[in-house]
Design brief:
Blueprint (H helix, E strand, L loop, with lengths): L4 E4 L3 H12 L4 E4 L11 E3 L5 E3 L6 E3 L2 H8 L4 E3 L4 E5 L2 E5 L3 H8 L8 H10 L10 H9 L1 H16 L8 H4 L17 E5 L3 H9 L4 E4 L4 H9 L8 E4 L3 H4 L9 E11 L9 E3 L8 E4 L1 H4 L6 E9 L6 E2 L3 H19 L3 E3 L2 H4 L5 H16 L5
Parallel strand pairs: 1-2, 1-11, 2-10, 7-13, 11-17
Antiparallel strand pairs: 3-4, 5-9, 6-9, 7-8, 12-15, 12-16, 13-14, 14-15
Helix pairs in contact: 1-14, 4-5, 5-6
The structure holds uridine-5'-diphosphate.
């Protein structure tokens, strides 16, 4: 049998592409290099009956109704509003910065209406460039140096092993500042965790008569064999792996950040008060996640994980520095040409070298594949 499309990667981006193509009648072969589907969204049930996220905490949140509705076809979501505490100055403080954060740090009792004015004074006391051209200045321009130093500076150095002034202000945009008392991590309209887990959701996405799946299969090793399975004239390859690897690093290597995640089963019903506690200034890990908060699963034990940032390993994060963005531009020019040919699509965090959230990966994949199916230029 000849396939119309090859999808490289069975993560959330690849699975969105594969499903959309399959529903349009295309015969799709999905190749995944890992031994399991779902990419970095993978999760599994621990012996204690707790759903554990293999690659660290994944909380789905979006304002994109299309992406939300799309995924709701494959899973129900357990409604969950993510809250994070940050361990700073020996206290567990609600994060991101909101009225309660300020009152705990400064020992004040300002009201929600006074937050914006308070932060403005903090910012006015601080030194930064306007408009901000890096992560540090982006944060300082919103909350001032004291809160930056307490919550952001050391976390960022630990996570990225780089001076925060080398990182793009885009990274700072992930963390809101709230001039009210909303202490949720995300304020998106739709938030939740797939009721049966992410792996089950992806399994369902890939469960289509037009989709064939190979796991533990490296596109770069099996490329020739696989090409022979494609219908030569009209074949499409959707690539979701690392951008630089596709082009044999011709413009040099892009940097990725990895994590060493240490999991622990703890003999207590609850380990901490929130699903995630950040440790900006203490220890070598960035945060501790306690999974049962997300799912509401009951057990007299609990599973936690600690994330230790690493330079090498499974690529989790793109690193938004100027050097990487310049290299990215060169690669993206090449992907643009290939996409115009109608033979290739590059989608997802790794293939587009973008710090996508899950919903953005779904939305971007849907957009490109729909354009392709409608014969429009991508
Ligand atoms: N960040 C920080 N302090 C925190 C949480 C986040 O300085 O307590 C910064 C840090 O640079 C981090 C970035 O904001 O890498 C993005 O945080 P997010 O929680 O979105 O990270 P992810 O969940 O993608 O690892």
């Amino acid at each position: 049998m000849k396939f119309d499309c090859l999808v490289v990667g069975a993560g959330i981006s690849g699975s969105t592409a594969a499903r959309t193509l399959a529903e349009a009648g295309k015969k799709v072969l999905v190749m995944e290099q890992l031994k399991h589907i779902a990419g970095h969204c993978h999760d599994y049930l621990s012996p204690e009956g707790i759903t554990v996220h293999t690659y660290g905490p994944h909380i789905f949140h979006t304002n994109n109704r299309d992406a939300w509705n799309y995924l709701n076809r494959f899973t129900e979501f357990r409604h969950f509003q993510h809250r994070v505490l940050s361990y700073a100055d020996g206290l567990l403080i609600p994060f991101p910065i909101n009225m309660d954060t300020i009152n705990m740090v400064y020992g004040t009792s300002i009201t929600a209406e006074e937050v914006a004015g308070f932060l403005e004074k903090e910012v006015n006391k601080s030194v930064y460039k306007d408009p901000p051209g890096n992560f540090r200045d982006a944060v300082v321009s919103q909350v001032g140096e004291r809160l930056y130093n307490l919550f952001f500076k050391n976390y960022t150095i630990k996570q990225w092993e780089r001076n925060p002034e080398e990182l793009s202000p885009e990274v700072a945009r992930r963390i809101p500042v709230r001039a009210n008392r909303d202490n949720r991590y995300f304020s998106d309209q739709y938030q939740g965790i797939p009721s049966g887990g992410y792996t089950k959701m992806i399994e369902k996405m890939l469960d289509h008569e037009n989709i064939s799946l190979m796991t533990g299969a490296d596109y770069f090793r099996l490329g020739d064999t696989v090409s022979a399975l494609l219908d030569e004239k009209n074949s499409l390859t959707v690539y979701t792996g690392e951008l630089d690897r596709f082009f044999k690093y011709k413009y040099g290597e892009l940097e990725y950040r990895s994590l060493d995640i240490k999991f622990k089963t703890v003999d207590m019903e609850q380990y901490q008060d929130a699903a995630v506690v950040n440790y900006p200034n203490d220890y070598d890990f960035t945060r501790i996640t306690e999974f049962k908060h997300m799912t509401g699963e009951k057990s007299d034990k609990t599973v936690i994980c600690m994330e230790y940032p690493m330079e090498k390993g499974e690529p989790y994060y793109v690193v938004l520095t100027e050097t990487n963005m310049e290299k990215r531009e060169k690669y993206i020019k090449e992907t643009g040409i290939l996409e115009k040919s109608g033979k290739f699509i590059f989608t997802g965090r790794l293939a587009e070298y973008k710090y996508y959230n899950m919903d953005q990966a779904v939305a971007a994949g849907l957009e490109k594949i729909r354009k392709y199916l409608n014969g429009k230029e991508i």
